[in-house]
Specification:
The chain folds into 2 domains: 88 residues, no CATH class; 112 residues, Alpha Horseshoe (Serine Threonine Protein Phosphatase 5, Tetratricopeptide repeat), CATH 1.25.40. Helices cover 52% and strands 0% of the residues. It has 14 helices and no strands.
């Protein structure tokens, strides 16, 4: 998970690439830079220029590995975000170099309107291997977005690369209403990730005491035994 994208490679490497490119390639590189700068500035008229269409269709990445719509959402460039999300020639599931797609970023940014549009009008992919939109929504803690994703078929027990679930992240960040929603929808309270940590462990590790008590109470009702962690000492966050 990256969430706020970091450079894919250093300025020095990028400058080396530019300086050693042909004149034609240098022009293309600089044009791509202008394209992404226009996204950052929410310059819708610049984005609409015909010379940029090829970069949209081909999901041409920025020098930092950004994908156009993901970057627009991240930068809160709303005019460009909605323009790109409605573009027929644009693959709505395009990812950046970090595996983030537009639905993931819209969920993380709390852009409820765009999440609903992507789901209802563009049929954006809800589930994917590794980090998925519901993980990002659980981190954000927006109840309406979580409901939209679940109603669209999101896997409530989706596994991140280290096999952490949305319930674990909702507990970690103290989103008590999202925790309740996930449990009511059948999320697995006994799930463990690759570190043998459960949602209860996540709540305790990050000092979410109210959530931890509630989850332990639910654990006892479900399994008829007090909760016992699988690891002797919880790791430091």
């Amino acid at each position: 998970m990256n969430i706020i994208s970091t450079p894919a490679y250093s300025f020095q490497e990028y400058d080396f690439k530019v300086l050693n490119a042909s004149n034609k390639d240098q022009f293309v590189i600089k044009e791509i830079d202008r394209f992404y700068k226009a996204i950052e500035l929410d310059d819708i008229e610049e984005i609409k220029k015909i010379e940029y269409k090829q970069y949209l269709i081909n999901n041409t990445k920025s020098k930092y590995g950004n994908s156009a719509l993901v970057y627009a959402i991240q930068e809160n460039s709303q005019k460009v975000s909605y323009y790109l999300s409605q573009s027929i020639d644009f693959n709505i599931n395009n990812e950046n170099n970090f595996g983030e797609n537009p639905l993931m970023m819209a969920a993380f940014m709390g852009n409820t309107k765009l999440v609903k549009y992507l789901l209802e009008n563009r049929k954006a992919t809800v589930n994917k291997d590794g980090w998925s939109p519901i993980h990002y929504a659980a981190i954000r803690g927006d109840l309406e977005i979580m409901n939209s994703l679940i109603n669209a078929g999101a896997n409530i027990d989706a596994l991140s690369p280290n096999e952490s679930t949305p319930l674990m992240y909702a507990a970690r960040y103290g989103h008590i209403r999202v925790v309740k929603l996930l449990l009511d929808k059948g999320a697995d309270l006994s799930a463990v990730n690759k570190q043998d940590l459960t949602p209860i462990d996540f709540a305790k590790m990050y000092n979410q005491s109210e959530i931890a008590r509630g989850l332990e109470s639910r654990w006892f009702k479900l399994y008829k035994v007090p909760y016992e962690p699988l690891v002797d000492n919880l790791p430091q966050p």
